[in-house]
Amino acid sequence: MPAHCAITVRKFEVTESLIYRNLRLSALEESPAAFSSNLIAEQSRTDDEWASRLRIASNSGFDLPLIGYVGVEAAGLAWGKVDRSDSTIVNVYQMWVAPECRGRGLARLLLRSIVDWAVSLRARSLQLGAVCDDSPAMRLYISEGFVPLGQIAPLRSGSMLMVQNMRLHIPQSAV
Q1: 3 state SS of 66
Q2: At what angle do helices 136-143 and 106-120 cross, to 10 degrees?
Q3: Mean pLDDT score of the chain
Q4: Separation CA 173–CA 28 (nearest Å)
Q5: Which CATH number is correct for 7-174, 3.40.630.30, 3.40.50.720, 2.40.50.1070, 2.60.120.620?
Q6: Which residues pair with 86 in a beta bridge?
Q7: Are the C-beta atoms of residues 126 and 144 closer than 8 Å to each other?
Q8: Which of 32, 49, 78, 82 would suit a FRET pair with 42, their CA atoms being 20 to 30 Å apart?
Q9: Collapsing DSSP states into helix, strand and coil, what is residue 9?
Q10: What percent of the chain has pLDDT over 70?
């Protein structure tokens, strides 16, 4: 793919559940250590379940499912979700960019789109979990102002990988 292709981000359309499914499964297959869910669990979902997940999220007002493009290729995704217990917090889930499209700024654009949405909702912070290593993802979160929050913990039950929760405080002047 040419280096000069435009990167863009937008909200998933309700009708794009198959694209969402394919990106999500690609993410879990390519980067199994980066997510709390796993490929086998997600592959067991029916097409109706994928469609329902996207439809409910698109209409909730509490979710922002994003798709990222490099040129015309669907190359990444991220999901913002207002915290159920505290509406001043937006959680970031499912951040992923296809390996062949990394290094072009798509992950940063996905993340900043969620930050902008959180600001529009008058949220005070964003939070996410990141695998504890010196990865491009961890460097991105730190460069965008995320700081460690609490103790590290296993990615999932029985996992040797550790995850650090991180938080980005939104200045009140931005809200």
Answers
A1: strand
A2: 40
A3: 92
A4: 37
A5: 3.40.630.30
A6: none
A7: no
A8: 82
A9: strand
A10: 97
Answer for the pair 1, 71: CB distance below 8 angstroms, yes or no.
yes
For helices 47-60 and 17-30, give the axis angle rounded to 10 degrees.
110
Domain regions of the chain by residue span: 7-174
Residue with the two structure tokens 């199994």: 32
Is the per-residue pLDDT at 163 higher than 80?
Answer: yes
- Residues facing 112 on adjacent strands: none
* Lookup: tokens for 72: 């015309």
Q: Contact, 23 vs 74, CB < 8 A?
A: yes
Helices and strands (DSSP H and E) totals, the chain: 5, 8
- Residues written for the chain: 175
The answer to whether residues 77 and 65 touch, using CB atoms and an 8 Å cutoff, is: yes
